[in-house]
Amino acid sequence: MRYNRILLKLSGESLMGTQSYGISPEMLSQYVRGVQVGIVIGGGNIFRGLSGAAGGMDRVQGDYMGMLATMINSLALQAELEKQGIRTELLGGMAIEPICKAMSRRRAVEAMEEGRVVIIGGGTGNPYFTTDTASTLRAIEIKADAILKGTRVDGVYTADPEKDPKATKYQHLTYSEALEKKLKIMDLTAFALAEDNNLPIYVFDMNRKGNLLRVVEGEDVGTIVGA
User: Full-prediction pTM beyond 0.70?
Assistant: First the structure.
């Protein structure tokens, strides 16, 4: 199946490359070539609210710091896209003048229809929600055909393939099968939103060159979770 409108979910850590912290320009360059999609990116390479709370920080304060971390990554991604001549629209879970306007379905859809890559930072704009939940919410808002979750492995496996050589890959899973098998694809809030709105989740290896284009064109290079 070829997708016409997608929401690409990337972790903040995916931008680090071989670094232990921050943003790798090389990883940005690999990700954005030929991409014409909506993007939500995490902020875990800079700050994670749950980690702050575990260290004694107020959870709400920590989550807002995490949202700002996603905005830093979103700005970095925007800069890389525009350096390559790709038009963008940066929106946020909250308006941050003069960086971005607040996310709205109308703004996002209009920008995508005009050929711009829409980057949505700032999570949902509320504490206690992850970027998994934010990406699912944004995908539903813009009526994406699917969420594409870029990871370090080429799909969902019976066990961690980096630790268990006998792990086997799933080609397709239903939402109920993924829950029954306790496969940690997304957090439960995000997963419930996807199931309620019949939104497919496609998990694939984002680090393999050309994979994003293969997924968009309908090639079978990962695992799809759906009805």
Answer: yes
